[in-house]
Amino acid sequence: MRTTIRTGVLATVAAMAATALGAALARGAGVGFVISDAGDSIPVSGVAFVTGVFSLVGVAIAAALRRWSARPATLFVRVAAALTALSLVPPVLAPADAGTTGTLVVLHLVAAAVMIPPLARSLGQYPPSGGTISLRMPSRRTGRSSSSRS
To answer: Where do the structural domains in the chain lie, given as residue ranges?
Structure first.
């Protein structure tokens, strides 16, 4: 459990740094991060803070799965992939220009790319022994994913 938490905290710091750097570079390139018609702008520190908060939520999920799941790494990757996909909805729906929207989507993906692999590795053998990653749920009857049926 300590390894997962330590790995998660280090990955959180790395994700915060990566997204803050990405936001700073994007701002330097002219992306305004203006979200509303009132002209409110997301500061670079805000990007890092929100990344940190939700990354720590991911660490808590990983720790819980390590404690209560028989296959924590596989389940964590599935949950994290679903939550990453859901996290892309607000930037797309927000009243922002294309540059801000695109940058926020990329920053969400950067945070996920920094957080998910080390946390999954800290939870045990990942990828599974077959060497492939499947996001499909196993069939209740056979235990195999629905794509592996003949």
So the answer is: 2-148
